[in-house]
Amino acid sequence: MRPSSAFLVALIASALALNTSLARARSAPAPVGIFEDHVDVGTVLHPGSAEYDSTKRTYTISGSGENMWLAADAFQFVWKKMSGDVTLTADIAFLTKTGNEHKKAVLILRQSLDADSVYADVALHASGLTSLQFRDEKGAVTSQIQSNLSAPARLRIAKRGDYVYMSLGADQGSTLEVAGGWLRIPLHGPIYVGLGVCSHDKDVVEKAVFSNVALTQPAPVPAGEPVLYSTLETVATDPADRRVAYLAPGRFEAPNWTRDGSAFLFNRNGHIERLPVSGGAPTVLDTGLATRCNNDHGISPDGTQLAISDNSQEDHESLVYIVPITGGAPRRITQKSPSYWHGWSPDGKTLAFVGQRKDEFDIYTIPAAGGEETRLTTAKGLDDGPECSPDGKYIYFNSERTGHMQIWRMKPDGSEQEQVFSDDLNNWFPHISPDGQWMVFLTYGPEVTGHPENKDVTLRLMSLADKKITVLAKLFGGQGTINVPSWSPDSKQLAFVSYLLIPPESTGSGK
């Protein structure tokens, strides 16, 4: 007996309803602890998984994926959608020590589930490397700031307004200390907040355990002034990886890199301090009566002397002095004030500095042995930041003579003054690499006047051969970031200072 058409219609309708129910069941969120769901982001060959142990309150996440880097990511993601400020903290441990040393377990903030989404994460690598990674434009190449703490057990990522930063603790349950960041990342509206694992090997699956997980949102308007932190960072020219060398509360400024590559010099609280490149605590350099050193200081070409600018004497306007590189009594060079050192000639016989004379800031030179100053610029408006090229052919400087701050150069006698390039931004403090191939400089937006502190700025790099300009780093800084020469002796890295303004509820002994 053949079934009736009505029966067939009913059967088909029932099957369609069942398929719809199954599809809905498959697409329904699968909560994992405090998180809403989990998913593989990007292309993975082996599906990931996530398990929550309510007894131990731990998350065990299995993830594959080739990498979380460059312009696209592939990893297992356990997430919750949230808006506003957020803090995510966890102890992290890999289940095995085998596999790729770059496999990652991350705390992550992500605009979308797209593989090329804008994001920021704090990533613990199996090697112990820990970094704040970020992609600040959809489809852009990932950048990172490497922490100077290896293999922390407890990690935190925090979003405050438009900025993101990381905090780390050496051991499980230990006090968390601010570890770097304060980057403007364009995360808007509801974002995905959660935990992730990437095997860094598309053919395998790796596991990590996240314990003592805390996901919180602070009060909208914390009381009190933000706490300032300063971070001495290095950045390589290729690839442009950043690394934290030293971080401390308060303000320090303007690192020099010693000629032998062994140490940094910077100013803090009126003194010059020395920090080994290999790590450790900074020590104060003896500068005698010069106890109000500002951020204009630099090392002689032979590495034996240090030029400083100090405000401690007479009318408390800046004067230029020279001290032995190991410290000692300062020898006064400029007789007029204010004067701010900025450059040595390659033979070490001449200093270039900025002097304010009769309400005009211009560029001058003076013998390092002492003597009469020579004025090199006379244009109306501020001329600043003179630095001699390694071959001695030019003095580079920045000038606002065109209406906004641009990079210029001239012959050592002040002749043939010419603009190096032109754009609509405000560019300061040109520094030429020891090999003479590169110029780095600090860039503010077109709306900024002067060189104020606590601004979103970029470090840009120009090839002097073809004048091609690239962005080396985006950071929160400005005054104090890179006022003085800070190239490494091999011309492969730069030192600079970035700053953080952490709300008071976020600082100190967070658990």
Commentary on this structure:
The chain is mostly beta strands and 511 residues long. It folds into two domains: 182 residues, Jelly Rolls, CATH 2.60.120; 276 residues, TolB, C-terminal domain (Neuraminidase, 6 Propeller), CATH 2.120.10. Helices cover 5% and strands 47% of the residues. The protein has one helix and 39 strands. Strands 1-6-15-8-9-10-11-18-17-39 form a ten-stranded mixed beta sheet, with no helix packed on it. Strands 2-3-16-7-12-13-14 form a seven-stranded antiparallel beta sheet, with no helix packed on it. A four-stranded antiparallel beta sheet has the order 19-20-21-22, with no helix packed on it. The longest helix is centred in the first third of the chain and has 23 residues. The termini are far apart.
Helix/strand structural class:
mainly beta
- What's the CATH class of the largest domain, please? Mainly Beta
Percent in strands: over 45%
User: Which topology of the largest domain does CATH recognise?
Assistant: Neuraminidase
Strand order of the largest sheet: 1-6-15-8-9-10-11-18-17-39
What is the second-level CATH architecture of the largest domain?
Answer: 6 Propeller
- Low-confidence runs of at least 5 consecutive residues: 1-26
> Considering the protein shown, what is the CATH homologous superfamily of the largest domain?
TolB, C-terminal domain
The number of domains is: 2
